Amino acid sequence: MPTSTDISLPLLPGQAYHIYNRGNEKRPIFFQEDNFSYFLKRYQDYIKGYMGTYAYCLIDNHLHISASVKSGERIIAVARSDKEIKLDTHFVRRYVMPYLKSIDVEAQLADLTDLRAVDLTDLRAVDLTELRAVDLTNLQDLLNLLPPLQLTTLTSDYETHPEQLTDLPFTTQLCSYIVSQRMRRFLLSYAKSVNVQQERTGSLFQKPFRRKWITTRDDLKSIITYIHHNVIHHGYDVSFERYPWSSYREYISDKKDSILWNDALSIFGSKTEFVQYSTEYQDRKIEEMEFK
Question: Are residues 63 and 90 in the same domain?
């Protein structure tokens, strides 16, 4: 499995990742019990439609999540009705403008102010010389302006993970940006709420969140187990099933609303084999510690 933690790696459509972060200066990010449940609720609010979750584990000062990014078609479909998405001007200047120029939408669009009067649903019917003020940071306006996106090419197999958005076609850049923004906004939303509750100031998390690309189903199997084992590794409990803030209990219970349990269990074979693999993983870790 790739070991790179390059924080510039984009989140690509159709790919799986191990996402993790910890408190700034290794300080707590969860201060009381309701912080954990609030975190999980806000996480689902922000990533629904954009990512599916294989596993999670929340510890006092850090977190681990394994998630799969939805297809490009799904991301754009959800984003079309997501009124909160706003593109920052850096993304517009570095990625949107070069793409617009490549499809002959020229400098009339360079003024990033506001669009109200021009119907951009049919680009062919628009006199571009009349466009003096287009808000390209508004995702809805941008999607209306663009020709139909070639979304069927967005979910691809990669031999190596592109290290920067510049290495990708524009439609993939846009989808990757949208998903990464949802994660950043989620963490910021949680941090703001906790800061108010705890009467604290400053950054709650280390910046930015980190992620590793998961390339095979065997790697995903190992990552899911590794995430669940965190509660034992860090001494929070001596068993997987007793700790309330990991997805392990969802796998062995009938309540699996927040995780991709059906897909994940197919990797292990069955619920019984999932439990057996987890137990054997724990035994191997104990044995490794004894021989150190």
Answer: no
